[in-house]
Design brief:
The protein is an alpha+beta fold and 376 residues long. Helices cover 51% and strands 19% of the residues. Strands 4, 6, 7, 10, 11 and 12 form a six-stranded mixed beta sheet that branches. Strands 3-5-9-8 form a four-stranded antiparallel beta sheet. Strands 1-2 form a two-stranded antiparallel ribbon.
Length: 376
């Protein structure tokens, strides 16, 4: 009777042993939980999944690439589509997915269906290039899409640039006349809400000349753009006209303009010559020479004073002792004093002369490429 009471426990043990043996003989039972079975045109495709039930993107794309390399184009798309439905793709994974999808559709389906993934690929990486050994059927679709995308991108760029230019306004007016032999100045301010302008220049030439010269305006702390055409360029024995245009720029090229090369503005220049012109380095050099002479005069006077003091001390000592001074001692002191005195006078004379010359030349000194207007 004891054995009949333990039968239920024996049957449970046998059942558990049988289940364990069946699991050992079927190792894919557990792994099947991490797979998605998809039917594709009569074929069964197994999509790898992560433990959370999402697509294992890396494995799916790896399998898709392998199938493509093995020319099994029909079973590329399920893996790619499973990868693309996830939001965790890296940029490189997204590019690879679009590329494989476009290539597979170009070969197995309607080429028009391949345009969308190729278009998405090019919007992520506009300069993408297909491998050199890509089949012509694929390159044909890709090249067509690339041409269209480049045209769209260029159109969008031009539209955005046109809107940017519309918002820029060049303020102030350019001069309408000038005097030959004097610099011709320009001052402008800008309304530039987007701070797009990185440079402003003036193109200018004499009426009848073929090539414009360029003058880059400098921006100061008051947000003004300033510059001038130098006096030696405006110097002329006859009246003439200057053609010019003003152009703002960014790193991509021209933006807003005042006048153009084809329709320039005009400035009337009255004849005039530069009466005299001295380079700043000449004036500063003469002034520096005057300063050097003045320093030499000060040093000479200092030596003379110290020599005179030494002579006076020697004379006072001799008088106090009622003795005479040896000429070998006294004469060199006197000679040194006389030489210092003469050098002092010469240096002071040189300083006065050179200082006077610098003062006379200063009003005619060239200032920033122009000439100081003596009437102002």
């Amino acid at each position: 009777m004891k054995y009949f009471g333990s039968l239920p426990f024996i049957f449970c043990a046998i059942a558990l042993w049988a289940d364990a043996g069946q699991a050992a003989n079927n190792p894919t039972a557990e792994s099947a939980e991490n797979q998605e079975i998809v039917e594709e045109e009569g074929e069964t495709v197994t999509i790898p999944l992560l433990p959370d039930g999402t697509t294992n993107v890396a494995e799916a794309l790896k399998t898709a690439q392998h199938n493509f390399d093995e020319l099994e184009y029909d079973i590329v798309l399920p893996y790619v589509e499973a990868a693309l439905r996830e939001k965790t793709l890296s940029p490189d994974q997204k590019l690879l997915a679009y590329l494989l999808q476009g290539q597979a559709l170009a070969i197995t389906g309607d080429p028009a269906d391949a345009e969308r993934p190729f278009r998405l690929l090019l919007r992520v990486q506009p300069d993408f290039k297909l491998p050199p050994d890509t089949p012509p059927k694929i390159t044909g679709v890709f090249s067509r899409v690339q041409t269209e995308e480049n045209a769209i991108r260029d159109q969008v760029y031009r539209l955005a640039r046109a809107r940017k230019i519309e918002k820029i306004k060049i303020n102030e007016r350019a001069p309408t006349d000038g005097k030959g032999g004097t610099s011709l100045g320009f001052t402008f301010t800008l309304d530039d809400p987007a701070q797009s302008v990185t440079a402003m220049k003036i193109g200018y030439r004499r009426l009848g000349e073929g090539v414009y010269s360029a003058l880059v305006l400098k921006k100061n702390d008051d947000n003004e753009y300033k510059g001038f055409i130098p006096a030696n360029w405006t110097e002329s024995e006859t009246d003439f006209k200057v053609e010019f245009y003003v152009e703002t720029q960014d790193r991509d090229g021209p933006l807003q303009r005042m006048f153009t090369q084809e329709e320039p503005g005009v400035i009337n220049i009255e004849k005039g010559l530069i009466p005299y012109q001295v380079a700043p380095k000449v004036v500063y050099g003469i002034a520096a020479g005057a300063g050097a002479f003045a320093l030499g005069a000060i040093i000479s006077n200092t030596i003379m004073i110290s020599t005179q003091a030494a002579k006076d001390d020697l004379v006072e000592g001799a008088l106090a002792q009622d003795t005479t001074i040896d000429g070998k001692i006294l004469v060199p002191i006197i000679d040194r004093g006389n030489a210092s005195n003469l050098a002092g006078w010469v240096c002071w004379g040189g300083a006065i002369v050179l200082g006077g010359v610098a003062s006379v030349l200063y009003p005619f000194m060239e200032i920033d490429g122009g000439v100081l207007n003596l009437d102002e």
